[in-house]
Structures are given as C-alpha cells and as structure tokens.
Design brief:
Largest sheet: 6 strands, mixed
CATH class of the largest domain: Alpha Beta
Radius of gyration: 19 Å
Strand content: 15-25%
CATH topology of the largest domain: 2-enoyl-CoA Hydratase, Chain A, domain 1
CATH architecture of the largest domain: Alpha-Beta Complex
Number of helices: 11
Helix content: 40-55%
Number of strands: 10
Length: 266
C-alpha cells in the first residue's frame, strides 16, 4: 500500500512526497490518507528532516493530463454509508491538519488539476507553488456538499473572506495566473520546472537553523489568529526555545569567522 505515496529523500534533508494514484487523478481514498498520515506523524520525530514537498504523480507526458489531486475518490464515496462518509471526512480533515502542524515547513508543488480535497491539501501546506497548467478550486457545492477538509476555514485566511465566499459559493475553477493574482499561490512556473522550483525553495529553507525555522512556524501558525496581546508573548516563548541551542552559538561563531554556519538542529 505504501506505493500509493512515493517518498524520495535528498541529502540535504528534504522529503518529496508524491501522491501516486495517477490513473485516479491522485484522488484520496482511505488507504492514501492512512499512509500520508503515518508519514507526516513520523516526520515530527525525524530530526534530520528540514522540509517536505508534496506533489502528484504524472499520468503520461502531457501536462494537460496531470493532476495534483482531484480530491475525494468519488468511486469509493458511492459505496460508503453515511457513517463511513463521516469517518472519511474526519480522517481527511485530521490528516490535513497534521500536514499543517508538522514540525517542518511543507511546500505544495501543485501540478495540473487540484479540486476539492486537492486544493484543501495545498491550503494546509505552508507555501504553494503552481505549474502554469494548474486548474484548481473548491468545487464541492457543485456536488451539493461543502469543503470538509478545512477549505472553508483556510481559504479565507489566505485570500480573504469575500474572495473565499465567491470561490466556494460558485464552485469556480481558476487557473494558475488567477491563483497567483489572489495570493492563493506564491509562484507560477512552467510544468517541467515545478519540482526544481520547489526544491530550490526547500533548499533555501533547509540551510537555515532548523530549530529556528520550526519555532517560527509554530509562532506563525498559532499566533496569526490570536490577539496581539496573546501572539506577542507566544512569539517570545518560541524565541526562548532557540536561546540555549548550539545552533544559535554556531551562527554567532560563523558570523565572527566569516563563514557559513553548519546547523545540526541542536
């Protein structure tokens, strides 16, 4: 079952996860969610890990057929009882929340179609990069349901409440340029450059102090929705974690010695 989520690790601590159900447009079933949840859980305890990239397996050589993920597996969904549907929604929501909260930054390398849960997975990632052939959207209302894996909550926090309402109410599908214009993605590249662009960004992150990056993510995730009176002390507490670390002292020594620091996550 692990072959439905491919894993590739680089020497600089970057983990590339590829949703690998190309014949099914990389849509999510219970099996894929279970494997993804296991990998993300273990990532919290991998102290050599610096960044995660999530992308989708390609179906053939034509970019117009590629897919990041088209969301829930509707063929599986048709066989589920109402109770099983509730379990699926619980599972996908919690899995994507785990992606959002995992210790290291996560980059979504969105290639091709990303509908429903595919877009919701990208929303749970810290940064989104899209290939120019991307078509994405929260299309659930066209199926008489609503986004159930965080879409109604994460999309407005990224693009604003008015634009989120427009996109969700209409089930509109948008292209990569529109996604860039509204701030849904931070960069658009040609399809054959997508993974390299994601790796380049991941390497830029990986060269920094891993404890500092992890604490910055913690402060951003948990402070951004809090009042300033709560968020500023939270930032201070996150900063305090970095003070006694060997990495902080290494950074100061490297500055004095005019060399690049060598961080070990200690």
């Amino acid at each position: 079952m692990s072959d439905i989520l491919l894993q590739e690790r680089t020497e600089d601590g970057i983990l590339v996860l590829t949703l690998n159900r190309p014949d099914a447009m990389n849509c999510f079933n219970f099996d894929l969610l279970a494997v993804l949840a296991d990998v993300i859980r273990e990532a919290n305890f991998d102290m050599d890990l610096r960044c995660i990239i999530i992308t989708g397996a390609k179906a053939g050589d034509e970019p117009k057929k590629w897919s990041f993920s088209t969301g829930a597996d509707l063929k599986e969904r048709r066989t589920l009882t109402p109770d099983q549907v509730r379990r699926f929604i619980f599972t996908i929501r919690n899995t994507f929340t785990a992606v959002e909260q995992v210790r290291v930054p996560v980059i979504a390398a969105i290639n091709g179609f990303a509908f429903g849960g595919g877009t919701e997975l990208s929303l749970a990632c810290d940064i989104r990069i899209a290939s120019s052939n991307v078509i994405m959207g929260l299309t659930e209302t066209s199926l008489a349901i609503i986004p159930g894996a965080g879409g109604t909550q994460r999309l407005p926090r990224i693009v604003g409440i008015a634009k989120a309402k427009e996109l969700i109410y209409t089930a509109r599908r948008i292209n990569a340029q529109t996604a860039l214009d509204i701030g849904l993605v931070s960069k658009v590249v040609e399809p054959d450059k997508l993974l390299e662009a994601a790796l380049e960004l991941a390497r830029e992150i990986a060269k920094n102090g891993p404890i500092g990056v992890a604490q910055a993510k913690f402060a951003l995730n948990y402070g951004s929705e809090a009042s300033l009176g709560v968020a500023l002390p939270l930032e201070s507490k996150a900063y305090e974690v970095t003070i006694p670390t060997k990495d902080r002292l290494e950074a100061l020594a490297a500055f004095v010695e005019k060399r690049k620091p060598v961080f070990k996550g200690e």
